[in-house]
């Protein structure tokens, strides 16, 4: 009986809504804290607020586990929740690991994904879309790599230091890809050799062409899989109908033959 | 009889075309007024022109209401019209509320939407498209929020003040999203720690990936709903045909059996 | 006989290829002339080259008209050709109307469109695509107009002069639309009132949303028209089949009834 | 027997994986060499490493040729491999042709494409997509050319030298196309004549419109070819079914006639 009530409570809408509210409220507070003035004005309250949030999250996870038991850990999202709640229980000396403590607090906000199914679906959809572009990412990396190596050969003497080594060259190429002041980079390179515009224009044209095709390929691929799925039902019915027609044709031929035989017999 | 003529007048094409003309003319005048020279040259005329427009709009709305009666207020667009016309009747002391008076005058131009059905359709279509991206907007907000909080932790010491608090950080991130001088922001951050390029590149890659998938998802979703709608008629017909074929098959079997029975009987 | 040969000549491939070659060659020469050095070096040759081209184009058009006669003027492209050829025959005093003379010479290069059918098709396709976006252009203009008027109210005091009057404001908004240094414009406005970021961010979000939906709408619209066209043949066949099945069903019922009647009669 | 083992070896997975590993390792080394410090620290090792790689690639190609024989040269990818391996065997005096030597070494990394089928497929897909945009490229070139010639007429006096001759003008237009500081270019031109904004805005609008339509056309074209391919099977079946129905209808009519004749005969 007691367990039943707990289960009811765990699955009640206002429990999940209240948790969402707590997370959103916590997010707002974290946001306000980024303003130095507000952080100082309420300096004494942060500790108690943080403690309250920590306890509520602990309470919430304990209830969920006590109801779902093993099933709780089957969902990757729950595991993510659990780790965040447990890790933030560890007392951290803020003065030493301030960045880690802050990041952990921030990650609590990501619990929002688990408490809202619509967001969970989008994230799952986004993760599911990664394989379809993995090959393009590899190809883009090779293009970046080749242009990066060539760039750090040709423009190493550029005074801006944008081509110092392969890594910095690739970062510069990423900048060129976003069109961010890419002509400054090009004009600098063209002072070494006026023909070096070829390097930049070809890079932009090639990467734009690759992205363009990626886009078309993904849309077409999605459409194909969509149509195949829905077409099957119609296609199956048409196949069945085809077989039925063949059968009817044969049957009819038999009937006709029978009739003809009957008629032939009659006159006798 | 008098009402019939009024209705004819209200529904006549030249009445709505004339209203459109008045609105477009008014828009041109408002545009010219933004030039300080022109505003001063015709200073005395603006008042009479404004009065004329106000009276015409009042006249137009009165005619429409007197014909349509209650139906008039059923359309959101008409309500929007009515409010703008009524509110601009209130005499406002321009010296005090100059901004509000000017905005109200500008909103009159938006009456163009109601007087042209093509524009009304596009606006309705755009409003109808909002739900399909609402989840993505929430997700984008979370991404902005998380990066914003991290950014105002890490780069608070940046001299440009672009990461002063959460709100300014999110505005800066919006700027990075549009690729507007984002490398300036990054190079500044990299002076604090050369590894901070990860923050910017990951933000750009993640948001680009989310937008990319949003785009594909919306196109595919639209296509799916489009196809489902049009497929139903064909699908229904194929279903019916299938049933008919089954029935014909059975009938034919019966006919064959009858014939066979008849033939069996004959030799006797 | 003489006319037949002329017609053969006019339709021969090498005649149209040669014309294309002349146009491309002329385009290259015009390009070289933009370099001041080259223009001076060959100063005396330009006149004769121009005369040669003019005569060849005249010769070409005369042949085409003498063969096609009235049909020649039915194509808009031919008309475009004819006007360019005729107008460049008029002797223009270069020192006075140098710009017009130069533009006319440049327009000769556009005759390339008429001499290559692939290009003609693309241009026709592009022109055919205009109606599908005309409403969006009107909507965009209204958005630009409203933001332009508001902008020249609010930011008229900005020292950069980017909001001097409605026209300059709309040009500035076009710049914001292309994300070109838009934050500079925004930061300047935010010095008047820190809340003015709303103006810029809302403008970018709204126009991006409108473009996004335009894109999706055009793709879906194209797909719909494409599918309707191709579906008709299949759909018609399925409709016909459906009618046939109904007829067969009735026939079969009649046959069965006949058989039953026959069998009933027999035992007597 | 000895040949069989060689063939087994050539087709074994670990042979191709090991080659991939060597290429990736070589790519990493080339990347590290772009850092001047690392290049100096290991100065003596580069020669031996390069020799080792060269020998391994030679060994690999010899094995592949000895197994595949003539078939090896049928694939364009293999030919590409072969040329790179052979050319890097030629001893080059680095001090003289340092750039060529370095590029050849870099091209070795591109052998990755041949060793990974997924990458080969993407490259083949990209190359296959070129014809569908070739006409648009020609059209874009004409637009660039016409605007380039007009630009170098109108703005030749601009102090930035961005319109010095046709070629530089076209490079500047490419910059405008990427929205990179295009307003700087425009504001400079507007100092010559305030109406020259038309040149830039029209260029951006026209090229954007062309690209927009290109995108839609390619997606629709891909969809059409996709649907045609898959529709054929269903379409054929429906065609066959249609013929069958016609035949059944006729047969049934004959059967009915036969029956009627039989019944007519009976009373006699």
Structural account:
4 copies of one chain form a homotetramer. With 268 residues, chain A is mostly helical. Chain A has 12 helices and no strands. The first copy, chain A, has helices at residues 2-11, 13-33, 36-41, 43-68, 76-87, 98-109, 111-115, 117-129, 131-154, 166-177, 182-192, 197-265. The longest helix of chain A has 69 residues, at 197-265. The mean pLDDT of chain A is 81. At the B-C interface, helix 2, helix 6, helix 8, helix 10 and helix 12 of B face helix 9, helix 10 and helix 12 of C.
Could you write a compact summary of the structure shown?
4 copies of one chain form a homotetramer. The longest helix of chain A is centred in the C-terminal third of the chain and has 69 residues, at 197-265.
Helicity level of chain A, as a percent range? Answer: over 70%
Average pLDDT, all residues of chain A? 81
Uncertain runs of chain A are: none
Quaternary class: homotetramer
Order of helix and strand elements from N to C terminus of chain A: HHHHHHHHHHHH
- Rg calculated over all Cα atoms of chain A: 33 Å
* Sheet of most strands of chain A: none
Number of helices of chain A: 12
């Amino acid at each position: 009986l007691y367990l039943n009530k707990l289960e009811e409570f765990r699955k009640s809408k206002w429990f999940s809504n209240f948790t969402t509210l707590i997370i959103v409220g916590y997010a707002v507070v974290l946001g306000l804290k980024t303003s130095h003035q507000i952080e100082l004005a309420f300096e004494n309250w942060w500790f108690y607020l943080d403690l309250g949030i920590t306890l509520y999250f602990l309470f919430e996870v304990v209830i969920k586990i006590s109801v779902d038991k093993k099933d709780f850990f089957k969902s990757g999202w729950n595991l993510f929740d659990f780790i965040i709640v447990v890790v933030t229980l560890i007392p951290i000396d803020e003065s030493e690991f301030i960045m880690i403590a802050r990041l952990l607090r921030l990650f609590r906000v990501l619990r929002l994904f688990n408490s809202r199914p619509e967001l969970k679906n989008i994230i799952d959809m986004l993760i599911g879309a990664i394989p379809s572009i993995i090959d393009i990412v590899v190809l883009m990396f090779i293009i970046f790599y080749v242009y990066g190596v060539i760039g750090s050969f040709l423009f190493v003497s550029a005074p801006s230091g944008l081509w110092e080594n392969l890594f910095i060259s690739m970062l510069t190429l990423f900048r060129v890809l976003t069109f961010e002041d890419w002509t400054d980079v090009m004009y600098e390179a063209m002072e070494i050799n006026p023909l070096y515009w070829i390097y930049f224009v070809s890079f932009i044209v090639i990467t734009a062409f690759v992205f363009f095709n990626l886009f078309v390929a993904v849309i077409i691929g999605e459409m194909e899989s969509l149509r195949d799925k829905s077409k099957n039902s119609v296609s199956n019915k048409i196949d069945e109908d085809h077989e039925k027609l063949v059968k009817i044709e044969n049957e009819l031929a038999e009937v006709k033959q029978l009739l003809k035989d009957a008629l032939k017999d009659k006159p006798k």
